[in-house]
């Protein structure tokens, strides 16, 4: 059958057929046997069991260690859909993020699994890993990086919670009138504003930030705004790095050109961020 992964099927019990599902990791499948369907993933975060137990991710059905050392996890298959851009500006999204960020059980479980907090310094260090030489020497990108290093004290002391780390609308699954959050490979103990920034800069008009944060339970203070700006700049650098790696040079150059006035130009900075 077209699209089947026979290497993976060798690690499954007899009768299962695997059909790859798109995604950055290339390790997600729909597994089918007779009338049974599950969402199968290779080497998911061990945190998945806790998320499933809290009803934040679809129900975990079983796990299995394959002969090659991979861990296979099967979750309930849900016929649902991703959220639209407009739906990202909803109380359902805010309530789900509050539940994740404020859950003492999830925090305790992730502390046991990961231990180390993911600080702002880690964001910078990960950006520099395998950074292409052309980006290393780019004047404007170097200027942004220097600014982030200089302003680290603004974000270093922020409290840490469970953060998803990849809050794209396609990772919100609406099924049977319930909202789930999927794809937890980037989960970390981090500043919750790093999560919120992904939502605010992608889906919420700037003039609505104060109202949105009020609904979440935060006041848009000077410090909160500075932290949003810091993580937004960091996200821009990572977007450019990923675009370069994937050969999406038009998108990369378009993003860079928005900040052509420099990091100290408020107009250029706003265009670069949003």
Describe the overall structure.
With 274 residues, the chain is α+β, with helices and mostly antiparallel strands. The chain has two domains: 6-77, Phosphorylase Kinase, domain 1 (2-Layer Sandwich), CATH 3.30.200; 82-273, Aminoglycoside phosphotransferase (APH), C-terminal lobe (Aminoglycoside 3'-phosphotransferase, Chain: A, domain 2). Helices cover 45% and strands 17% of the residues. The protein has 13 helices and ten strands. It has helices at residues 6-9, 48-53, 91-101, 104-113, 120-128, 133-136, 139-150, 153-156, 192-203, 209-216, 222-245, 249-258, 266-273, and strands spanning 17-21, 28-33, 36-42, 60-65, 71-76, 81-82, 161-163, 172-175, 178-181, 188-190. The strands form three sheets. A five-stranded antiparallel beta sheet has the order 1-2-3-5-4. It has a three-stranded antiparallel beta sheet with strand order 6-8-9, with helices on one face. A hairpin with a 2-residue loop joins strand 2 (28-33) and strand 3 (36-42). The longest helix has 24 residues, at 222-245. The radius of gyration is 20 Å and the shape is globular. The mean pLDDT is 88.
Let me know the number of strands: 10
Spans with pLDDT under 50 lasting ≥5 residues?
A: none
Number of structural domains: 2
**Number of DSSP helical runs:** 13
Strand content: 15-25%
Measured as a percent range, the helix fraction is: 40-55%
Shape annotation: globular
| Known CATH architecture of the largest domain | Alpha-Beta Complex
Report strand order across the widest sheet.
1-2-3-5-4
Report the mean per-residue pLDDT as an integer. Answer: 88
Determine the structural class based on helices, strands and strand pairing.
alpha+beta
């Amino acid at each position: 059958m077209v699209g089947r992964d026979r290497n993976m099927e060798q690690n499954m019990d007899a009768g299962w057929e695997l059909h790859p599902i798109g995604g950055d990791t290339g390790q997600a499948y729909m597994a089918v046997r007779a009338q049974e369907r599950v969402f199968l993933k290779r080497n998911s975060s061990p945190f998945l069991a806790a998320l499933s137990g809290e009803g934040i991710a679809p129900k975990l059905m079983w796990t299995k260690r394959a002969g090659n050392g991979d861990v296979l996890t099967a979750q309930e298959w849900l016929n649902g859909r991703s959220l639209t851009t407009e739906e990202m500006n909803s109380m359902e999204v805010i309530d789900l993020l509050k539940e994740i960020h404020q859950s003492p059980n999830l925090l305790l479980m992730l502390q046991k699994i990961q231990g180390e907090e993911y600080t702002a310094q880690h964001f910078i260090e990960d950006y520099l890993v395998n950074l292409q030489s052309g980006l290393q020497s780019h004047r404007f990108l170097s200027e942004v990086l220097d600014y982030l290093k200089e302003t680290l004290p603004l974000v270093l002391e922020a409290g840490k919670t469970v953060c998803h780390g990849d809050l794209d609308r396609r990772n919100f699954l609406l099924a049977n009138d319930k909202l789930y959050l999927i794809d937890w490979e980037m989960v970390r103990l981090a500043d919750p504003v790093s999560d919120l920034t992904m939502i605010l800069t992608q889906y919420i008009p700037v003039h609505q930030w104060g109202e949105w944060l009020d609904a979440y339970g935060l006041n848009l203070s000077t410090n909160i705004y500075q932290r949003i700006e810091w993580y937004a700049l960091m996200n821009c650098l990572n977007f450019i790095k990923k675009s370069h790696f994937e050969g999406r040079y038009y998108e990369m150059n378009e993003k860079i050109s928005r900040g052509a006035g420099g990091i100290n130009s408020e107009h250029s900075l706003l265009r670069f961020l949003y």
